[in-house]
Design brief:
The protein is of the alpha/beta class. The protein is built from 14 helices and 13 strands. The relative contact order is 0.18. The structure holds ligand TLP.
Length: 346
């Protein structure tokens, strides 16, 4: 029985072309700034995101943490969506290592934070009792909100208000190219009003490892120092950058295929009795759905794993499926067959 792994797009293996490029990559010591492949990838990333410079990090988690460390000081407050990945899935690093207070503002199901609610949460700097609110974090696409996209206009509106209050804006764009493809706009438009943006080459873009944190030159140099402190200064890292370059050159446009398979799954799910899914909310490659009330989400996920289909558990009644390069239409149809078989057995 073939296993169909829908836990995440992070499970994608490097392509043959990536493996070839990794084997022959030009390398140097990146801590000395001498790795030509890393330098090329950082340059490419900065250009694609419309920023002056970029920094390669081993993970999205490190990129987000380094952004907080470089933008804030301990005791600052950052505003962050109540469903943000940085809040839920990054081990509280911003608070534990950055010493910042993470103040949440509600994310709607569409991943948006209401602009007025955000503005009302900004603390006046002249009050002795308050921590200064110095940073706003946004997420595009929004993972826990089912891969929802933020438009350039929305991001721009939020950033304008944050900047009026002297704050910096960081965009966790782990899947920003999914948003760019879904909206049909260059990624740079989605990040133009953010002071920093990070994205991952290790997700749907299929590279094995890595994220890039982009921003102004001075910010990136500060971030480089923080990365070194965290132990993220790697040496002949060009071996992994080589795959990242192919991810950016050749793998962006095909993300549209993952969005199509996601639609196929979401529409298939609503045809199975007692399953709840929201195809109209599926904008990219993440599908959230609920199994019939008789089964808890973790029980359903366990039962499906024994039928060779793997999902992840974001909490509550929900199950998460993520489409990617290694699942095609026939795998989605087979997934739906196996879900139907499981539903019949409940
Ligand atoms: N997300 C992973 C898990 O951690 C949940 C996934 O499977 O979706 N920002 C966002 C929006 C992310 O979705 C992720 C990874 C990260 C940051 C962190 O990236 P990594 O895993 O490279 O540290």
């Amino acid at each position: 029985m073939k296993t169909i792994d829908l836990r995440s797009d992070t499970i994608t293996h490097p392509t043959e072309e990536m493996r070839q490029a990794m084997g022959t990559a030009a390398v140097g010591d990146d801590v000395f700034g001498e790795d030509p492949s890393i330098n090329r990838l950082e340059g490419l990333a900065a250009r694609m995101l419309g920023k002056e410079a970029a920094l390669f990090t081993p993970s999205g988690t490190m990129s987000n943490l380094v952004a907080v460390l470089a933008h804030t000081r301990p005791g600052n407050e950052i505003l962050i969506g109540s469903e943000a990945h940085m809040l839920w899935n990054e081990v509280g690093g911003a608070s534990a290592l950055g010493g910042v207070v993470m103040r949440t503002v509600p994310n709607g199901e569409d991943g948006l934070i209401d602009l007025d609610v955000m503005e009302a949460a900004i603390r006046p700097h002249n009050n002795l009792h308050y921590p200064p609110t110095t940073m706003l974090c946004l997420e595009n696409t929004h993972n826990r909100c089912g891969g929802a996209v933020l438009t350039p206009e929305y991001t721009s509106g939020m950033a304008t208000v944050a900047h009026q209050h002297g704050m910096t804006v960081h965009l966790d764009g782990a899947r920003i190219f999914n948003a760019a493809v879904a909206l049909g706009v260059p990624a740079a438009e989605l990040s133009q009003d953010a002071d920093s943006v990070c994205f991952c080459v290790s997700k749907g873009l299929s590279a094995p490892v890595g994220s890039l944190l982009c921003g102004r030159m001075e910010f990136v140099e500060k971030a480089r120092k923080w990365r070194k402190m965290l132990g993220g200064g790697m040496r002949q890292a060009g071996v992994i950058a080589a795959a990242g370059i192919i991810a950016l050159d050749n793998m962006v446009a095909r993300l549209a295929e993952d969005h199509t398979t996601a639609q196929r799954l979401a529409h298939g799910l609503i045809r199975i009795p007692a399953f709840t899914s929201w195809p109209e909310r599926v904008q990219t490659n993440i599908i959230m759905f609920e199994p019939p009330a008789l089964s808890t989400a973790p029980d359903f996920i366990r039962a499906m794993a024994s039928r060779g289909v793997r999902f992840s558990y974001p909490g509550g009644r929900r199950v998460r499926a993520v489409t990617h390069r290694m699942v095609g239409d026939e795998d989605i149809d087979e997934t739906l067959n196996r879900i139907e078989a499981q539903a019949a057995s409940i």
